[in-house]
Each structure stands twice: as structure tokens, then as C-alpha cells.
Backbone:
């Protein structure tokens, strides 16, 4: 059977006749391109993901327990000194790398370009989010007399624009040799009947597979191998949209080394028990970030003997992994979550439909779903005003306006 027949068979088996109709109409390059794309799609996986959207969420007998953490502000002087020295040593030896996940679509912000190219209106002149990150890393390089390799994860959708932007801005003074872009994977979008969506370019519509895709894409793109060649031992992985993200925190790194764990994370305490954020816990004996919607209300309010919330450490996309941890997780399939979203498509008559209501499912994995592959995690509580100025929404909470205020206030205090 040749590849066209093969693809046709698969489309039939998986009820994608509308794609067969399209293939029959297409000619030459366009047809070839679509066939090449279809060959790479795992139809079985897509069917499974779609079927899961129909299932009631299983309420398993999960055992949820609080997880221990240290508060950076309350560390004893000697302990802090010890952590800092351990962390600093790794960075100075050139065994530390940073990954920025910049493959998101930033739909809530509503800004048309890649989020890292968004200019935060600080100090009149403004600073791009990528510029703020580069400044943070350059400061660490100067302090520890090194150049930290900086890996930036993009998506198929925003890779070229990100690359051109960084080049045009001369990598904000970062050593070009040490900035490596790599693309994350994609998964097809499906409608409410599990049919693949067709885009304006006559291809199947796909979207980034979520920030949990970072592990497998580090491997698939050769970046993991590149890190090994450079003798990297610890990797920080953070988001692109926190203007106060500290990517080289020696206390966090040293604490992870001292505790002999493979993963570590910086948290900030919940603003109030009802805040809608994911918090750390142990689930069935493994570290886990539990969504606010899954944490029973009573537990969300529980406090320990010192009056602190038992489930109060929010995950802020500020994570550390050993190279072995990345190697391990890059081979494990992470679970996928589905999001029901609006996506335009081409109908059977070739007309573009721009929906006004959500019409299709996007499948994403989340970076924190990797935690449960480990027995333990070191959590360091930072401070909201020092560590967390997210740019998520167009207005209101976690918007450019709140991030600008937090950023400027932080730098006034330094
Ligand atoms: P969010 O989950 O906040 O998504 O990403 P987003 O794309 O920025 O925004 P919305 O939800 O569409 O409004 C947190 C971090 O993970 C990255 C983002 O770029 C951000 O740094 N991310 C997200 C990826 O790199 N790839 C993805 O597929 C999703």
C-alpha cells in the first residue's frame, strides 16, 4: 500500500471522511503537504484524547496531604549561607542552564505577537518581557562570572517571529552563542464530534501541546544532548510572563542540592484561602500541584500549628530539575488536559467559519504534572513582591498594569 492509500485507510477507520473529501480535491504540492502532515498524526491518540473529553472526571480515592517547604525569609543565617554557597558553586562551574517556555498563545492577554515581545510600560521607555529576562540572566552572569546557556522554547506558530525579534534586538546584549531556540510539539484540534479541523492553508489545524511538552521537545530537538555536552547538571525552567522571575536563585538551587532531591520549586503563599491558584501538596505520596477546583474548600482553609495555610504554597512556574530528572520525564507520557476553545476552520464548502462560541478541543499537558514521577521536591517559599509579577490578563488582576507596579516597586527597593 502506498502512503496515500495508507492515509486514506486511517482516515476511514477514524471517521475523518471530510479530510478524504479534501484530499480528493487537492492537487500537487498542497496534496503532498497534507499527506505528509497526516502521516505524522497519531490518530489513535487523538481519538483517545477526544473520548476522554466525554468521560466524567473519575473521583479516585486520592490521599491528599500537606507538603513541607522552607520559607526563604525565615531561614537561619548559617543555613542560608550554606545553600547559597552550594548553589553558587554549580553556577560558577558552568553547570547551570535556563529554559524559558515561550510557546504559549497568550490568548488572555490578547496581544497578537509572541508574549516575550510584549513591552511592559515600565519607566516611561518600557521593557520587553524578553528584555527583562535577559537582564536577569546577565546580572547573574556578572555576579557568578559565567555565561548561563539560555534555551528558549517556541511554538511552530511563533518561532520565526521570536527569532527575528531577538536578532533585531541583538539578543538584548546576551551572548548569541548561548541562546538556543527550540520548537515544542503540536497536537491537532478536534471539534465536538472528534473531527479534525481544517485551516485556511488546507492543512489540519494544530496547536502547541502545552508547557508540559517542554521535556519531550528538549529531547526531540537535541537540546538535552546539547546540555549534556556542556556538562550541565541543573536546569531552571520558567515562564516568559513573570516580570519578577529570578532564574538563578542560588538559595533554591543550594537547598535542592542539600536536600538531595531531583526537583525543586519556588512558591509564593496564597493571597487568601479562596485564591484561584494551583497549590502544592502530596497526592498518594508524590508531589503534586492541585488545582483550586480540586481542593476541597475545608482543606483550602486548614492551618498548621503556626497559623500558616496547610495548602498555601502556589506554583508560580519557577522550577528546577536535575539533568537526570529531565531525561527521565522526557520519556514519560504526561497526562493531557483538554480546553474547549474558539478556533476558526474551513467547512465542507471551503468557507471559513469564525465561531462566536467555543467549538473545539485543544489538548495540553502541564509542566507540573511531571512532579508526580518523583518521590520528593524541595519547595522554597519566596515573596510575592520579590518573585511574582505575572502578565496574564489584558486588564484587572495579573495584567500589564499590576506587573508594571510590582516591577517598579521592586526595583525602587533595591
Ligand atoms: P499559560 O498557561 O499562562 O498560557 O502559560 P499562555 O499561552 O501564556 O496564555 P493563555 O492561557 O493562552 O492566555 C504559562 C507559560 O507556559 C508557556 C507560556 O508561554 C508561558 O510562559 N507555554 C504555554 C508554552 O511554552 N507552551 C504552551 O503550549 C503553553
Residues:
Amino acid at each position: 500500500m502506498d502512503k496515500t492509500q495508507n492515509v486514506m485507510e486511517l482516515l476511514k477507520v477514524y471517521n475523518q471522511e471530510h479530510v478524504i473529501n479534501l484530499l480528493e480535491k487537492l492537487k500537487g504540492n498542497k496534496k503532498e503537504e497534507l499527506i505528509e502532515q497526516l502521516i505524522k498524526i497519531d490518530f489513535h491518540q487523538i481519538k483517545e484524547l477526544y473520548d476522554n473529553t466525554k468521560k466524567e472526571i473519575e473521583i479516585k480515592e486520592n490521599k491528599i496531604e500537606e507538603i513541607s517547604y522552607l520559607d526563604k525569609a525565615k531561614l537561619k543565617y548559617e543555613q542560608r549561607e550554606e545553600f547559597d554557597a552550594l548553589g553558587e558553586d554549580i553556577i560558577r562551574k558552568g553547570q547551570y542552564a535556563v529554559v524559558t517556555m515561550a510557546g504559549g498563545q497568550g490568548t488572555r492577554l490578547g496581544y497578537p505577537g509572541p508574549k516575550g515581545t510584549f513591552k511592559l510600560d515600565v519607566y516611561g521607555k518600557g521593557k520587553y518581557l524578553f528584555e527583562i529576562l535577559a537582564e536577569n540572566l546577565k546580572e547573574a552572569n556578572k555576579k557568578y562570572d559565567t555565561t548561563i546557556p539560555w534555551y528558549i522554547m517556541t511554538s511552530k506558530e511563533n518561532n520565526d517571529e521570536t527569532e527575528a525579534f531577538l536578532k533585531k534586538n541583538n539578543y538584548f546584549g546576551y551572548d548569541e552563542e548561548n541562546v538556543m531556540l527550540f520548537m515544542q510539539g503540536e497536537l491537532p484540534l478536534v471539534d465536538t464530534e472528534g473531527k479534525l479541523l481544517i485551516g485556511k492553508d488546507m492543512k489540519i489545524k494544530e496547536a502547541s501541546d502545552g508547557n508540559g511538552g517542554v521535556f519531550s521537545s528538549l529531547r526531540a530537538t537535541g537540546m538535552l544532548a546539547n546540555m549534556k555536552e556542556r556538562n550541565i547538571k541543573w536546569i531552571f525552567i520558567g515562564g516568559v510572563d513573570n516580570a519578577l522571575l529570578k532564574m538563578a536563585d542560588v538559595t533554591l538551587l543550594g537547598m535542592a542540592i542539600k536536600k538531595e532531591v531531583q526537583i525543586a520549586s519556588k512558591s509564593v503563599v496564597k493571597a487568601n484561602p479562596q485564591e484561584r491558584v494551583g497549590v502544592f501538596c502530596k497526592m498518594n505520596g508524590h508531589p503534586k500541584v492541585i488545582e483550586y477546583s480540586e481542593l476541597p474548600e475545608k482543606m483550602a482553609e486548614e492551618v498548621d500549628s503556626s497559623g500558616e495555610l496547610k495548602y498555601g504554597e502556589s506554583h508560580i512556574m519557577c522550577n528546577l530539575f536535575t539533568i537526570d530528572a529531565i531525561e527521565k520525564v522526557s520519556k514519560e507520557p504526561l497526562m493531557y488536559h483538554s480546553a474547549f476553545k474558539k478556533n476558526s476552520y474551513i467547512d465542507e464548502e471551503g468557507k471559513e467559519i469564525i465561531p462566536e462560541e467555543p467549538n473545539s478541543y485543544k489538548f495540553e499537558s502541564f509542566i507540573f504534572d511531571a512532579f508526580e514521577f518523583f518521590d520528593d521536591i524541595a519547595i522554597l517559599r519566596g515573596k510575592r513582591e520579590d518573585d511574582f509579577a505575572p502578565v496574564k490578563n489584558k486588564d484587572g488582576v495579573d495584567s500589564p498594569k499590576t506587573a508594571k507596579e510590582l516591577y517598579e516597586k521592586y526595583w525602587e527597593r533595591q
